[in-house]
Amino acid sequence: MAKDKSMSVCCPACLEDGTFRICDLWDSALDPDIKERIFSRDIFRYSCPECGEEILVAYDCTYLDKEHNFMVMLLTEKDDDTTIETTEYNLRVVRTINDFVEKIALIEDDIDDRIVELYKIMLEDQFEDERPDAKILGIYYGGKSENEKNLVFFIITENAPNCRAHLSLDVYETISRQFKESADKFGDTSEVGRDWAIGVLQNSFSDNQK
Question: Most CB atoms within 10 A, among 34, 158, 160, 206?
Fold first, then answer.
């Protein structure tokens, strides 16, 4: 059952403490507008009552999508001893607001997040070859193109202009077929991110060397 809670937030601008109302469970079936509020990050947006400063506050919460049989959990503190089990839904665990938003966007667009994470590593390698002096801070799914033939990705960098990349759905399907067996070997994990993708690619490379 969803519970409304309160958490204390210290404004970074005026250093005044304030109260932020949050919810630990968001059910898309009960709240049809919740996806847009997540995509806009409104559910994480705190406005200081003293000075009006707005910041994003990450907190532990769960998004439930019964239509797609998916559950996405945002856990802000990593605990290697924590075991999360669910037999009813496909589960994804993320650690940041951006990853939380991305997973839900992928579910909404019916895109396999495993293939997306594999492509990100390939894109990262390509970008580093082309711009060796640029430092990548993150690569995020940005939705489908207007003609819905490509997937759009935003490459966020620290010391170079941010840019976009496009992955055609045909190439997406090719990657899916190529790495399906290796990806399925790691299918028992709920944290499908960069480390997971590196493990899959290394496993695939090892298998090809046999």
Answer: 34
* Cβ burial, residue 157 (10 Å; 0-12/13-18/19+): middle
The residue written with tokens 């170079």 in the block is 160
Q: Helices H, strands E: what count in the chain? A: 5, 11
CB neighbours of residue 44 within 10 Å: 20
pLDDT at 1 over 50: no
Residue 132's pLDDT band (boundaries 50, 70, 90)?
confident
Enclosing H/E stretch for 34: helix 34-39
Instruction: State the pTM of this model.
Output: 0.90
In whole angstroms, how large is the CA radius of gyration of the chain?
19
Q: 10 Å Cβ neighbour count for 116?
A: 23
Q: Would you say 166 and 143 are in contact if contact means Cβ atoms under 8 Å apart?
A: no
Asked if residues 196 and 117 have their Cβ atoms less than 8 Å apart, the reply is: yes
> What is the token pair recorded at 62?
């769960």
